[in-house]
Amino acid sequence: MSAIRLDQVTGSNFSYQHLPFERFLDDMVELGRERVELWGIAPHLHVPHVSAEEARGIRRRLTERGLAVQCLTPEQVIYPVNVASPVPWLRESSIAMFRRAAELCVELGSPMLFLTPGRGFEDEPPDAAWRRAVDAIGEIAAYAGTLGLDCVLEPLQRVESNLVNDAATLAGMIDEIGAPNLGAALDTVAMAVAGDTVDGYFDALGARIRHVHLIDGTPAGHLAWGDGDLPLGAYLEALGRRGYDGCLTFELFGDGAYAFDPRPALERCFAAVERELDAATAT
Fold it and tell me: Is the pTM of this model over 0.90?
């Protein structure tokens, strides 16, 4: 049986939005990270605003510190971004934003672009919004494929999307899109809220699981490990047992203290994972 390794855990600028980008980079170096997931949000990296030259500059700043980008995750829930929107201009601008994000992945050296399914109006037939999402994500994935990129699609909680909320529906959408470069992202909070399990995800999606957001919750929330009640050790054991060899990211939101001073929360997360991995090795 394989085991999750601490070096699979990336750094990330989730919760650093009120601090300079250099502070985030320096913290990641001091925390021993080599790869990072970049949250595409102002002021660090607002996808519609960043030029190719600016993206190359960001890459140089990472390279100088021995860091590389593993995944670009544009903000796509709180921003006006919705690939399933029934409003034509909003849907079209959202697709254009992701196409631009794919181009920025190339400049940043990121092999992966992170996607979510969007949502339809609550009072419209769900099939219509599903079709818009499938067509939009298929178009984005196809364009990313021409650039040599992989994409991952993450289910959202019901308050965030009325289209894809669990592993079975995620597998259905990925199957329908049929893009070879489109995989799945497993988010432990969305998984717990939906009543899914790590094994259930792998039963439904197998090797298509290519990215993990490893976060605590109650079960909702995007909390540092120890601030919620989800079973970190069980998740790590199951991911290792199922042979997961991709990256894992702490996606911390929800508590203002994280944004005021994010590093202590990340330190607690790394320490919690290290304890669980050490305990598993000792048994």
Answer: yes
